[in-house]
Write a structure and sequence with these properties.
10 strands, two-stranded antiparallel ribbon, Dihydrofolate Reductase, subunit A, 155 residues, globular, alpha/beta
Length: 155
């Protein structure tokens, strides 16, 4: 199954100056829970922000300029090649903007964390046709910066 996983603000920001523009305790727990034991596909800039392959996951980095082949980390030159490298494993596309845009027509599920914050940024999650998906609110967390876990499943 091909899924994507993302956290974005009310104004769809996913990044600012190469960083996630918020720090919310516990917000990344769902990412870890869903992706552990599976394949994560990400773009070069996203990988470089993290700085290393994610533990207990196969990481495939999409890049035409650099090579990141190490244990549990491979490089593909395109999203198509990355999906082929993953084989029959469950795939989670985890950014950035360009990869999300390319993946939207392919994904069966979208695991979205909606962060209740308007913030400046330079990288955005693309607008998608939500009529193509059923929406389920999985959990809402209140706090200094509230957030909601939402799952979209293609109809």
């Amino acid at each position: 199954m091909i899924s994507l996983i993302v956290a974005y603000s009310k104004n769809r920001v996913i990044g600012s100056n190469g960083k996630i523009p918020w720090k919310i305790e516990g917000e990344q727990g769902r990412f870890r829970e869903l992706t552990t034991g599976n394949t994560v596909i990400m773009g070069r800039k996203t990988f470089e922000e993290i700085g290393r392959p994610l533990p207990n996951r196969k990481t495939i980095v999409v890049s035409t300029t650099k090579n990141f082949d190490t244990e549990n980390c491979k490089t593909a030159r395109s999203l198509k090649e990355a999906i082929e490298l993953a084989g029959q494993e469950d795939i989670f596309i985890s950014g950035g903007q360009k990869l999300y845009e390319e993946a939207l027509p392919l994904v069966e599920k979208m695991y979205i964390t909606e962060v209740e914050l308007d913030c400046p940024g330079d990288v955005f999650f693309p607008i998608f046709d939500d009529s193509l998906f059923s929406k389920e609110i999985d959990a809402r967390y209140d706090g200094k910066i509230p957030f909601t876990y939402v799952t979209y499943t293609r109809k």
